[in-house]
Amino acid sequence: MNDVDFAQGCIHELQAEYTASLKCLERIPVSLFEYKPHEKSMALGYLALLVAEIPLWVYHIASGNDIDFATYAHFQPKTTDELVAHFKENHQKAIEVLKGIEDGGLDGMFSLKNNGTVLHTEPRKHSISSSINHMVHHRGQLTVYMRLNDIPVPSIYGPSADDRTFG
User: Fold this and answer.
1) What is the CATH topology of the domain spanning 3-148?
2) Where are the transmembrane segments (predicted)?
3) Can you tell me whether residue 113 is helix, strand or coil?
């Protein structure tokens, strides 16, 4: 598959996951950002931030940038509205960079690093695909946290127990 077709497929997938992710993030109260269902679990706020920031990873990967955890500055939302706005901005950046991809534009490797030490390297196309899957995975975790806190879970791929509508 050429890079243009691949990028168009990723745009379609990001757009398909956008509404459900947005509906989840809009329901996360700041008062629960520190909630953890287990001592080994991520805090709810960090999990929500991952869902909001992974489209930014797609932007960096598609732009040819590596990500180093030591220098990657996580956004620090103070409100749910800021979290949601951050997600919308990151989503749009990912879509725009993917729209600009030309054949050969995704050649090369992407590396995830920690303080310069390479943790993982893979072809950029693979990394974009796995990042989108990673976002969906964390959104799934987020819905469990929502359920545990009596936050209504929106319809994602079909009706939820809280939302009997599609879309």
Assistant:
1) Four Helix Bundle (Hemerythrin (Met), subunit A) (1.20.120)
2) none
3) strand
